[in-house]
Amino acid sequence: MLMVAFGGRHPAGANFVTGDLIAGGSGAAAGGDGVGAIETDATNCMNLPAEAMEMEAPIRLRQVALRAGSGGAGQFRGGPGTIRDYEVLVDNVTFTHRGERHYSAARGMFGGGDGARAESVIIRADGSEEIIPSKIVTRLMRGDRVIVKTAGGAGYGDPAARDPAHAAADEADGEV
Asked: Is residue 100 helix, strand or coil?
């Protein structure tokens, strides 16, 4: 799981604070694929819809998508993580990022592939990039973007044993 929070002032002067819980992919198991972008660490949580965030704060969500290829290969594949791309529309926004799996991947079992590690980056309005190591509190300015890619789940079993129909469905769904 990964959490981001943004706080600052609207152009009209009112304060705003908004946060987002961002889920990764779950691992596969004997007999079943992992699930994409599902909360496995905390219960009764959901991500904030893009429209709700944009109505409450001067932030634009440029992309919300599954992270293709992030789930580990296997007879049963790991679930993909997600990608969220935030653009800040005002100056002086305090940004907090608390993430996991930036340094280690979920490990596959019985020949299954590892899931992808999480990756987060700030792309400044001038085009420079700052890798977010895992946890950070910093200041964002108008035009800065934050791109968060959550970790994928690990695969289970030999990828060569994957049912060809399931492999074709994965490709058609954009999960690999």
From this structure: coil
